[in-house]
Specification:
Bound molecules: zinc ion
Helix content: under 10%
CATH topology: N-terminal domain of TfIIb
Shape: elongated
CATH architecture: Single Sheet
Distance between the termini: 39 Å
CATH class: Mainly Beta
Radius of gyration: 16 Å
Number of domains: 1
Structural class: mainly beta
């Protein structure tokens, strides 16, 4: 019996450009970040880890394709 090739779906990950709602500073955040990310300018949290995905707390202004 032949072993079938299992298709493994590639995780669709991308980088998001997130704008801090407090000071407007833009930070590039990995969409599946496993870390909490704070604004580098004012320290406001802009992304939080949540399971396999990240919750973006700031305003997503764009995506950066790899
Ligand atoms: Zn900020």
């Amino acid at each position: 019996m032949k072993r079938e090739k299992v298709m493994v779906p590639k995780p669709r990950s991308s980088f998001l450009s997130v704008q801090c709602e407090k000071c407007g500073e833009k930070t590039v955040v990995f969409s599946h970040t496993t870390m909490d990310i704070n604004c580098k300018s004012c320290g406001e949290p802009i992304a939080q880890k949540s399971g396999s995905n990240a919750s973006i707390l700031g305003k997503v202004v764009g995506t950066l394709d790899q």
